[in-house]
Structures are given as structure tokens and as C-alpha cells.
Design a protein that fits this description.
Keywords: Membrane, Transmembrane, Transmembrane helix. By secondary structure, this protein is mainly alpha-helical. The chain has helices at about 5-20, 25-45, 60-65, 70-90, 95-110, 120-140.
């Protein structure tokens, strides 16, 4: 009979992964990670097509007037940022959740500058809180430090 030295640790690792997947906190992490990956990518791509909504209406005139581009063109930049944010959440949720939370904070400020969009700002505040929850959960399930790509090696 041949004995494999790492067999026991492999079996324990599989049990640990199964136990982790059945853990409610891990399930919440997985749900939030998926949502904050998919939603920004979809909404970001829609900035180029306006299939879901006419996004230009969501840019406060006080912010768009000084820009050297039209609000429609500004939405292209917003779309790129949102797609990148979604990809960062997918690849490094601990950092990506922080990026999304800061981005949502900016969106909220923008919406508060537009009369009649306070309900959308309130909804986005709820999303900001969910992004903050994802960041906290990611501190357990994403082993890399938040800013690991920027961390100096000593």
C-alpha cells in the first residue's frame, strides 16, 4: 500500500472548504461579492448604450457645467470606472469593496445636488453600507491585505 504524506491535510482542507461554504458569514460574503462584481459591470457597460436608463440625467448640472465634455461623454468615463470597480471586487474583494464604497459616496453627493433624486441617494446609501459590510467580511475571506499591490516588501 502506498501512503501519500499530504493526504490527511488535503482531506482536512476539503472539509474546511465545505464547512466554510456552509457558514452563513461566508455565504453573505459570496452574495455581496457577486452583487458588487456584477452590478457595477452591468451598469458601467450600460453607460455606453443607455438601454436601462438615460444616465445623463443623473449627473448634477453643477458638476457637469465645468467639464470640458458633454454629460453624455462624461458618462463614458463613469462607465469605465464602474467596470473597473466591478473587476477589482471580483479579483480582490477587500480592496474592491472599499473602491465601490468610495465611489458610491461620490454618487450620493452628486445625487444630493439634483432636486428630486433624494430617494435614489438614500438607496445608494444602503448600497454603500452593503459595500462596507463586504469590505469587513472580505477581511476574513480575502487573505491579502487591503492595499497588497502597493505594500512595500521589506
Amino acid at each position: 500500500m502506498v501512503t501519500i504524506g499530504n493526504h490527511r491535510s488535503l482531506v482536512e482542507g476539503q472539509r474546511s472548504a465545505r464547512a466554510q461554504r456552509s457558514d452563513a458569514a461566508y455565504q453573505a460574503f459570496a452574495i455581496l461579492r457577486t452583487a458588487f462584481t456584477v452590478a457595477p459591470i452591468i451598469f458601467g457597460l450600460d453607460k455606453f448604450t443607455n438601454v436601462l436608463v438615460q444616465w445623463d440625467h443623473y449627473l448634477a448640472p453643477v458638476l457637469s457645467r465645468p467639464l470640458p465634455v458633454t454629460p453624455h461623454q462624461a458618462m463614458y468615463a463613469v462607465g469605465v470606472i464602474e467596470v473597473v470597480a466591478g473587476l477589482i471586487v471580483a479579483l480582490h474583494p477587500r480592496l474592491g469593496a472599499l473602491v465601490v464604497a468610495v465611489w458610491l459616496g461620490g454618487i450620493i453627493v452628486n445625487l444630493l445636488l439634483i432636486p428630486g433624486f433624494y430617494d435614489v441617494a438614500l438607496r445608494d446609501f444602503g448600497l454603500l453600507l452593503a459595500a462596507a459590510a463586504l469590505q469587513r467580511l472580505a477581511s476574513r475571506y480575502d487573505p491579502r491585505p487591503t492595499f497588497w499591490p502597493l505594500r512595500r516588501r521589506d
